[in-house]
Amino acid sequence: xxxxxxxxxxxxxxxxLLVAFPGCDRLVTPRQAQVVKDAEAKAAQGDFPRAxxxxxxxxxxxxxxxxxxxxxxxxxxxxxxDPLNALHHFKRYLVLAxxxxxxxxxxxxxxxxxxxxxxxxxxDSVVTRSEATRLRNENLNLRKEVEQRTAKARAAPEKASTxxxxxSAKKSDRRTYVVRSGDTLASISRKFYHSSARGKEIxxxxxxxxxxxxxxxxxxxxxxx
Length: 225
Hints:
Blueprint: H1 2-20, H2 30-45, H3 48-57, H4 66-79, H5 83-96, H6 103-121, H7 129-173, E1 175-178, H8 185-193, H9 199-205, E2 221-224
């Protein structure tokens, strides 16, 4: 009776281990199961190098190790910033479990790591996620600054055009007078200002067109300031 109970317990333990490692083609030894458990504990504590060593100690060439390769790849990728080793374990996962539950994600991760590795080998540094976030924020700030400067540059000609229009309107508002026979600067001043004293202002405003202040030309157009 005792022997039957013990056998049932062993079978149950092995079934649990098989569930933990899908695709097993042979039994997981108690030692390997303990090593994987220790590796998980070290990863949870943040001791990633030790976790990697333990996971690698549990590896063999059987399909049951696909899950271990996947966990190793994630550690190398996310925690150690090591795309080369991550790629190796992602590839081993696909070899051992081509239709495994992580196959789709692994293919995407491999493409990303291949780009990162190629960038590294070309002499450029691999950009980390935090660095990528910082660069993205800087780009957004630069884009806003460029947009603001572009808006100001567009507003400047419009402002200049408005000012020009105001100046033109101001000029168009200036009065003009066509000289008649017998007109003098003094008489024209009296006509507009009710005083002959502003004849000098009319002369100053028309210096280019008045040749002789004493002899105004009939038909000449004068600006009245």
